[in-house]
Structures are given as C-alpha cells and as structure tokens.
Design brief:
The chain has five helices and eleven strands. By secondary structure, it is of the alpha+beta class. It has one domain (28-217, 240-268, 279-286): Immunoglobulin-like. It is globular, with a radius of gyration of 22 Å.
C-alpha cells in the first residue's frame, strides 16, 4: 500500500513538472506576430491593414503594426502629432531590431533621409468642411511631389549590404513608403527581407524592436556637440535608442482615438526648436510567426 501511494505521488509529480515545462515553453499568442494581409503593399496607404493597427504603446501613445511571413518583416505606423510629423520628415524614423531580444540596436532602418520639417501640413490647414487638418485636399500636389523625392534609406548592421545609405530602388529587398492620409496623418511603412538578419530558427526566440522618432539637430548644434561645446546644454536632450527612421499607422485605429495635434507655432520659436530637437522611442518584444 505504501509503495503504491509513493508510486502515485511520483507519477503526479512528474506530470506536474511536465505540464509546467510545457507551459513555460508555450509562447503567448498575444506576443506572437501575425502574418500580414495577403494584399499588403508598401505604399504609404494602410487600407489593406483594415480598421486598426494591432499594437499600442501606452508611454508614447502610438499605434503601430509589426507582422511577418516566411520572407519579410513588415512595419506600419501612423503619426498624427504635428511636431512628431515634422521630426520624422526632418530627421527620419528608425526601426531597430535585436534578433536576440536584448534591446541592442543590432540592425536598424531609418527613413526618410534628406527631408525637411516644413514638408508637414500647417496646423491651420483645414479640410473642405473646415473641421480638421487635411493633407490631401489642401497640399496634395505639392506634398506628393516633395514626398516622392525622399528616396534615401539608412541601414546599419546588415552584413550583406555594401553601403549604409541606399535608395528605395535598392536590390536588397528593403521597401519603405511614406505618405499622408486624407485626415492629415503621416503614414510610414516598411518591409525588410528576413534573410538579411541571418537569424537561426525564426520564431524560437523573442526579437526586440525599437521605434524612434528622431530629434532634429541644427548644423551649429551638431558641430558644438562634436567639438565638446555647451550650446546644447539646457535644451531638451535627444533620447537614446535608434538612429532615426519612420513608419505610419492606420486610419480608424482600434482601441480609442488618436492623440491631438501638438507642436505647431503656438509656443514660439524657442519652444518649437526645443520640441523638434527631442527624440522619443520605445522598445517592444515579440516572437515572429513561423511563416
């Protein structure tokens, strides 16, 4: 009888241990990227993503999407804050990736390169019914023409890429797009070939992703920084994280409304400069889909 009880206890202990190990190795569904829409196109138009972006960062109040299939990693983000739009157009948005989940900027893609902050619509631009800023109705031709000139991308960490500065017509498979939607939101999209990461067993290990809206640095400030000057002291610092690069979000995001427009000309020139020089970024971790 005693032996039987001991055997039963050992059996149940082994079963409990097996269940515990199985549970620990199971990836949370909400922490695993989904496949992109079958019709996904990197064009700065998020219609194919549906009526929402999948993820939301509470600290920066930003909606975004990451997805992957067997060939590519996809990113999309929508920016409605005017100051952040100007920073992206002037200094780029950067997506950094650490395939080992350690929050190191191992790989990065930054775009657009060579833009200007004044490419963003003015805060007082209104739609035809006077209700809200509307990039398409009032800035369409000039805005589209300027955005099509932004063809440079900065990539770092990819050993197969010969130069850090490439164009949108590159042969490596990098695809990026930036545009304004009908409501004046800045849309950024990108696709990166998974083969360029040379990562083993995609989907087994969490990857870490950093989104960074880069602060704009004036040439005089940059020279002072490089020469050890003090011109930048007291000014809003540029945060750590990625080097710059941008992506946009969707129209009609799920989970609540988007942020109101900040920035603009309401705070005076010094306030504008301080705001535009400030970088913001955040890290998130996800498992990739098996594809």
């Amino acid at each position: 009888m005693i032996r039987t009880s001991a055997s039963l206890l050992a059996f149940f202990a082994i079963q409990a241990l097996a269940l515990s190990l199985c549970s620990a190795q199971t990836k949370p569904a909400q922490n695993t990227l989904q496949a992109p829409p079958a019709s996904v196109t990197i064009d700065g138009d998020l219609n194919e993503w549906g009526d929402s972006l999948r993820y939301y960062n509470e600290d920066q109040k930003l909606y975004y999407t990451l997805a992957n299939d067997k060939d590519n990693l996809y990113m999309a983000i929508r920016i409605n804050d005017r100051s952040e739009q100007r920073r992206i157009l002037g200094a780029g948005l950067t997506l950094s990736i650490d395939t080992k989940g350690k929050k190191k900027e191992t790989f990065s893609v930054t775009f657009p390169i060579g833009g200007k902050p004044d490419m963003a619509p003015d805060d007082d631009t209104q739609s035809l019914d006077g209700s809200k800023p509307n990039a398409v109705d009032n800035h369409d031709e000039k805005l589209k023409a300027n955005l099509t000139k932004l063809r440079q991308i900065r990539v770092t960490g990819f050993k197969d890429v010969e130069s850090e500065l490439i164009t949108t017509s590159n042969t490596y498979g990098f695809k990026v797009a930036i545009d304004f939607d009908k409501d004046g939101n800045l849309i950024c999209e990108a696709a990166i070939p998974l083969s360029l990461f040379h990562a083993d067993d995609i989907g087994k290990t969490e990857w870490a992703f950093n989104f960074k809206i880069n602060g704009i640095v004036r040439p005089s400030q940059k020279r002072n920084d490089e020469n050890g000057g003090t011109e930048n002291q007291g000014r809003s610092g540029r945060s750590g994280g990625m080097g710059g690069g941008g992506l946009g979000g969707s129209r009609g995001m799920r989970g609540g409304g988007s942020r109101g427009m900040r920035g603009g000309n309401t705070g005076g020139e010094s306030t504008d400069r301080s705001e535009l020089s400030r970088s913001v970024d955040f890290w998130e971790k996800f498992f990739l889909a098996k594809g």
